[in-house]
Design a protein that fits this description.
Blueprint lengths: L3 H16 L5 H9 L20 E2 L5 E2 L2 H11 L6 E5 L5 H8 L3 E6 L2 H13 L5 E4 L12 E6 L8 H5 L1 E11 L5 E8 L5 E9 L13
Parallel strand pairs: 3-4, 3-6, 4-5, 6-7
Antiparallel strand pairs: 1-2, 7-8, 8-9
Helix pairs in contact: 1-2, 2-4
The protein binds S-adenosyl-L-homocysteine (SAH).
Length: about 220
Amino acid sequence: MDTYRHKGLRKKLVGLLQEKGITDERVLEAINSIPRHLFLDNAFVNFAYQDKAFPISAGQTISQPFTVAFQTQLLKIQRGDKVLEIGTGSAYQTCVLLEMKAKVFSIERQKVLYQKAKVMLEKMNYSAKLFFGDGYLGQPAFAPYDKIIITAGAPFIPEDLKRQLNVGGIMVIPVGEGDSQIMKRLIKRSETEFEMEEYGDFKFVPLLQNKSFNG
Ligand code: SAH
């Protein structure tokens, strides 16, 4: 259920995100219209509209609203963009992209989360292509992508993902091991040239490598 109270809290959150520097109107509108409380386990519903990350299943987290807004803003989403997301998690970020009319392909390596995300999207009446697999490899079958977003901390920028980005495309990826990561934006200028910008420190759960899948 999405009540007036939830809508009111959401408006406040959007105001806070604006104060923190989010200016892309379409990002703000998407956050204003998506009931984030439905993506959290019941015990946390009251916290859904605070600007905080929260635990979801399998030891993972739903990203902080500011982080979702910031990464999405860096992507400069246009209607119809083909977007590859690594780390579906709760599918909240997925829905923000879908609400902005992107076509979304999203990969998750935890089976439980992949399955939950499928149910969630259906319930919310959104449609995306979800994959259970290893995000380091991307999804070459549907490449190239206009935009690629990584929602877990990557120790390095995976070559496969760089390859699967369109020339002129944008990748947003938090890079770094340990406690915090540096948000990076790559713009692909040619098959071999990338422009790179840095946007400060963020905290993400790690993008896991070489682990057998938790089926
Ligand atoms: N966008 C999500 C963020 C979830 S946290 C949300 O807002 O809810 C990051 C997610 O990345 C976790 O669900 C984790 O299981 C997933 N992940 C970690 N390593 C991965 C990998 N190698 N491939 C795909 N997903 C991965």
